């Protein structure tokens, strides 16, 4: 930060820190912000950013744990209120979301800026995404990832959840785009002695947060990153929450002492299995969330420890084999088609059923063969006749006009069946994710059949297996049934 902290009397008495401001300002709101040990530690680091002792701060906390309301709303408001000549730039995954934070900070200073800090937002420059203070040059600019912020400088730059969703996180194109934008735009907008704050729920080992920290580890002459990491469930006893990535010798002595003291402070140390914020999310609620997530998704989003999906997708103990499936179950046969006879990829049709009372899915049958295009059509037709009219028939629709033509042709062959084409979107690992979690928690079982051995062997080797057609077809059927049963569940009316 540029300049020394200059608090007026009202701030000194009421809101010494961003967290104090957040708690005071939300006290009468429908959802007041309550203090929590992870927010208190983050708040201390933010104060060091304001004072110029920390230049780089990364915070990794699960979703819905208050990090953004503190860092993206009240930290900028507190910073600009106390240092009205300083500018804050904030970026998040879209321009509209970033604009929302800019509006929230602006409205906060319109509400309490005059009585608490002696400042107010200028009426001439008060757009949600670009505003300044009256009679001061300080203010706030917001932009989405990739957006232009040329011509503006930041005394504090906040990056909040740069990745929107799993599809973006797994996209190598977006990973490279974000890294290039960070290097060419974010770093070039920093004023001398500026503070850079990066907050995120982790998605992938190569997301922007991971790239930034890996790069810091390789450098001896750039500002080190202070990282604060809080998993939703403590993974070991008394694990310190603060780590330095980069050259620790470049840190001011006061920061080094603070890190040592807080990493031994019982307030911030948990026993293995302890929930992070039991006042808001009870241990039972957290364990339920863990039970509903795949291991990969839980490790990344909730534990802030994304690791390679290899070896974590399907494991041998996920598979249970049963004699049969209920006759009255809801069924879907999903086809992942290829068109090369005696070579290349397989055409696979996975029959999956769902029994609502037991809330259990059954993979009943796998049709798998290397077929010519003509044989593919006949096989789908004959299998539909065998499965019966009550079985949904779905085919993954390839992109382009040829994919549409194939679906149209199959419509003509299956006019008496509930048939449709399904466009595949996103990475395969994401399409498998819901099914992976169901296998992991024994909500999917296999019906005994000759296909079991090859099926299990293929899924165990993913994502490095030579073929993944059985996983694609099974996930397609599972996701179709999941969507269908979700639509048919009754809605509860709360009076």
What would you say this structure looks like, in words?
The chain is an alpha/beta fold and 495 residues long. It folds into two domains: 269 residues, Rossmann fold (3-Layer(aba) Sandwich); 173 residues, Nucleotidyltransferase, domain 5, CATH 3.30.420.280. The chain contains 16 helices and 16 strands. The strands form two sheets. It has a nine-stranded mixed sheet with strand order 3-4-5-2-6-7-1-8-9. Strands 10-16-13-12-11-14-15 form a seven-stranded mixed sheet. Helix 2 packs across helix 4, helix 3 runs parallel beside helix 4 and helix 4 crosses helix 5. The longest helix has 23 residues. The N terminus and C terminus are likely disordered.
Short note summarizing the structure:
The chain has 495 residues and is an alpha/beta fold. Helices cover 40% and strands 20% of the residues. The protein has helices at residues 9-14, 18-25, 37-51, 67-82, 95-117, 166-170, 172-186, 208-217, 253-263, 283-292, 295-302, 373-387, 400-413, 428-440, 452-461, 469-488, and strands at 56-60, 87-92, 121-127, 130-133, 139-144, 154-160, 190-200, 225-229, 242-245, 321-322, 330-336, 347-355, 360-369, 392-397, 419-423, 444-447.
């Amino acid at each position: 930060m540029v300049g020394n902290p200059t608090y007026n009397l009202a701030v000194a008495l009421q809101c010494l820190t961003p967290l104090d401001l957040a708690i005071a300002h939300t006290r009468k709101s429908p959802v007041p912000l309550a203090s929590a040990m992870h927010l208190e530690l983050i708040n201390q680091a933010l104060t060091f950013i304001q004072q110029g002792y920390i230049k780089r701060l990364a915070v990794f906390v699960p979703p819905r744990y208050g990090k953004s309301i503190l860092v993206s709303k009240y930290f900028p408001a507190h910073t600009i209120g106390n240092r009205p000549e300083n500018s804050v730039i904030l970026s998040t995954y879209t321009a509209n979301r970033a604009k929302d934070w800019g509006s929230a900070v602006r409205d906060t200073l319109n509400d309490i800026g005059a009585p608490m800090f002696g400042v107010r937002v200028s009426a001439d420059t008060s757009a949600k995404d670009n505003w300044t203070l009256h009679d001061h040059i300080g203010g706030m600019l917001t932009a989405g990832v990739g957006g232009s912020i040329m011509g503006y400088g930041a005394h504090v730059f906040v990056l909040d959840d740069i990745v929107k969703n799993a599809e973006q996180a797994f996209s190598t194109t977006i990973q490279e785009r974000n890294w290039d934008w960070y290097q060419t735009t974010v770093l070039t907008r920093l004023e001398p002695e500026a503070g850079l704050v990066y907050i995120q729920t982790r998605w992938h080992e190569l997301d922007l947060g991971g790239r930034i920290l890996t790069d810091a580890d390789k450098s001896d002459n750039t500002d080190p990153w202070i990282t604060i990491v809080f998993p939703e469930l403590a993974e070991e006893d008394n694990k310190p929450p603060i780590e330095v990535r980069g050259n620790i010798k470049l840190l001011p002595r006061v920061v080094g002492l603070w890190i040592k003291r807080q990493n031994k402070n019982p307030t911030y140390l948990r026993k293995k299995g302890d929930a992070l914020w039991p006042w808001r999310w009870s241990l039972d609620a957290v364990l339920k969330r863990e039970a509903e997530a795949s291991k990969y998704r839980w490790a990344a989003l909730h534990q802030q420890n994304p690791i390679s999906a290899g070896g974590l997708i399907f494991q041998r103990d996920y598979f249970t084999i049963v004699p049969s499936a209920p006759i009255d179950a809801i069924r879907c046969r999903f086809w992942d088609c290829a068109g090369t006879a005696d070579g290349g990829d397989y055409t696979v049709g996975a029959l999956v059923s769902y029994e609502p009372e037991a809330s259990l899915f059954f993979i009943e049958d796998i049709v798998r063969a290397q077929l010519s295009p003509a044989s593919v059509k006949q096989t789908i037709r004959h299998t539909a006749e065998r499965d019966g009219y009550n079985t949904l028939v779905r085919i993954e629709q390839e992109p382009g006009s040829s994919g549409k033509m194939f679906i149209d042709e199959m419509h003509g062959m299956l006019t008496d069946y509930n048939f449709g084409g399904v466009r595949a979107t996103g990475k395969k690992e994401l399409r498998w994710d819901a099914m992976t979690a169901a296998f992991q928690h024994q909500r999917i079982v296999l019906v005994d059949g000759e296909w079991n051995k090859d099926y299990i062997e293929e899924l165990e080797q993913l994502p490095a297996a030579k073929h993944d057609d059985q996983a694609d077809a099974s996930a397609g059927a599972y996701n179709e049934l999941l969507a269908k049963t979700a639509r048919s569940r009754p809605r509860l009316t709360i009076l």
